[in-house]
Write a structure and sequence with these properties.
With about 250 residues, the protein is α+β, with helices and mostly antiparallel strands. The chain contains 9 helices and 8 strands. The protein is elongated and about 70 Å long. The protein starts with 8 loop residues before the first helix and ends in a 9-residue tail after the last strand.
Amino acid sequence: MSDNFLPPPAWFDTAIEIVEFACKRKRKDDFIVDAKLRPQIVGKSYSYRIDVMEQLIRTKIVRIQDDRLAIGSSFDVEWLNNALISGNSKAWEFVAALGNNRAIDKKFTPEVLKKIGDTGEAFVLNELRKHHPIELHSQINHVAEYDDTLGYDICSPSIANTDYNSLLEVKTSVRQIPRKFEFFLSRNEFEVGISNRQWCIVAVSIIDNKPIVIGHIYCYQIESRLPRDIDDSAKWTSCKLSVEMEMFRPGLP
């Protein structure tokens, strides 16, 4: 399989079945027998299933140990990395079946996270320009381009009321987490947000390489979930939040 090739959904479905066998440490021969007994339809034939298994073994995602299938030690496969970064839903379903979140997290280097963040910010900027008349476009300011210390990424006239500006901190995720949205919040972002009611988080999800706005949420809505400082010598600087989708208000503020 080429490093730049993205497998079709049927490949992922079969790969997930194989991973489930591997998680249960079932014998390789058991999978072969199971594949023979399945209906022989296009994309799910015996030969196709065996081919997918051999591909997983070659890439060390799955290994053979004492004639049994087992989860491998390496997930560093370029096509899989690219699929995850693009928010491919089947790829995320596949890695969820693998169950090694720590190995997956290692793929998201600061450079990769910046690329994902830049994509989300560019999408929000474009959406703002779509919503606002052209005479307001000059007031849409992408401040993160020249200053990353302000605690927000975009300053723009509010869609709800153009007499006011909204300070938008864009959080972008490619992870497919049902009913929740995960993101990191810095201490600086929180302090700006809690002192300014115009500040909000805009959640962007990239699914199958297509960004969508999940909605927006204000700092006071998540304040109770944030860490508490013990004293001046022990202060939090960044935290990871997992927020229910229903907490986000629809669209842009």
